[in-house]
Structure formats: structure tokens, C-alpha cells
Amino acid sequence: MADRYGYVKGKCYICKEEELVRCKNLYTIGSEGTDLCINCEMIVVKFVRDLAVKATQAKIKRIKQRKIDKDFNNRCRKHGLC
Q1: Which of 52, 56, 60, 76 could be a cystine partner for 81, CB 3.0 to 4.6 Å?
Q2: Contact at 8 Å (CB) between 36 and 46?
Q3: DSSP secondary-structure letter at 28?
Q4: What is the C-alpha separation between 82 and 80, in angstroms, rounded?
Q5: Three-state DSSP class for 44?
Q6: Is there a contact between 33 and 27 (Cβ–Cβ < 8 Å)?
Q7: DSSP alpha helices (H): ranges in 3-78?
């Protein structure tokens, strides 16, 4: 029987320990989801958050670079250098 947070006694997919696990919607193998203990779940959450931050930073960097390139091209055309 699951507790109020959805944890049941089982085996964690990452650390292979027998403890309370929760099935997460990470379909790494088949369509069963991934059973994670509390500690491994927090590691996965931190990894996904860090990945999202890096993706956002890369997007901002591309936008800034496009703006710099656009400004350079405009100045270049204005002075007849391009």
C-alpha cells in the first residue's frame, strides 16, 4: 500500500536498494516508468534543473550573439564595408 506521497516498498532503479520508491514518468526501459527512491529522485531533479538552466543560458547567449552580428552587419552596410 502506498503512503500519501505515492511511495511503496520496492527496489530503486538507480541505486538498487530495497526501500521506499515512487514510480516516475521516466521511460528509460519500456513503458513501465522508473522506480526511484527519495535520494535518487532528488539527484535526478537536480540534474534536470541544471540541464534546464544550461539550455536557457545557451539560448540567451545565441540571442545576444545574433544581436551583435546584426548590429555589426548594419554598421558594415552603412559604411559600405560589406
Answers
A1: 76
A2: no
A3: S
A4: 6
A5: helix
A6: yes
A7: 38-78
- Residue in the structure block whose three cell numbers are 539550455: 55
Q: Are 35 and 8 in contact (CB under 8 A)?
A: no
Can you read off the three cell numbers belonging to residue 29? 526501459
C-alpha radius of gyration, the chain, whole number: 23
Set of cell numbers at residue 69: 552580428
Distance, CA of 30 to CA of 36 (rounded, Å): 16
The 3-state DSSP class for residue 48 equals helix
In order of 8, 17, 55, 69, 82, the CA distances from 21 in angstroms are 5, 9, 29, 50, 62
Classify burial at 36, counting beta carbons within 10 Å of its beta carbon; exposed 0-12, middle 13-18, buried 19 or more: buried
| pLDDT tens sequence across 23-73 | 888 887 777 788 999 999 999 999 999 999 999 999 999 999 988 888 877
